[in-house]
Specification:
By secondary structure, the chain is mainly alpha-helical. The chain has a domain of 64 residues. It is built from four helices and two strands, in the order E-E-H-H-H-H. Strand 1 and strand 2 form a beta hairpin. The model has no long low-confidence stretch (mean pLDDT 82). InterPro entries: DUF4133. It holds the Pfam family DUF4133.
Length: 110
């Protein structure tokens, strides 16, 4: 009896869902959960349902537009690279030469 095996051709490919790559799926999911909670809070407060729906739909459209734009601009790892680059200092200042003047013998611990 022969066996038929499927070959997974998606090995080493980024996780994608409808054009969103990697962590942007989580960004969109988290944003949608926040919008759901916002709608519930506004509705419980007593704001008209149609006003709540209009506001939430407008915010959801902005969320989708922003997340898809970031996914297209930065790609799979680009947003993490950008946030990492922002944390690198532009200048390191040393106002004392004492760090360089202190001599240590080989094998000495601080």
């Amino acid at each position: 009896m022969t066996s038929v095996y499927k070959i997974n051709k998606g090995v080493n490919q980024p996780v994608m869902f409808r054009g969103l790559k990697a962590q942007y799926i989580w960004w969109l999911g988290g944003g949608l959960v926040l919008l759901l909670l916002t709608f519930a809070i506004l509705y419980i407060i007593g704001i008209n349902m149609f006003v709540c729906l209009g506001l939430i739909i407008a915010l959801a459209m902005m969320l989708f537009k922003k997340v898809y734009a970031m996914s297209g601009k930065y790609g799979e790892h680009g947003l993490m690279k950008k946030t990492g680059h922002m944390r690198v200092p532009t200048l390191i200042t040393n106002r004392s030469r004492s760090v360089f003047m202190k001599k240590r013998s080989y094998g000495e611990q601080q």
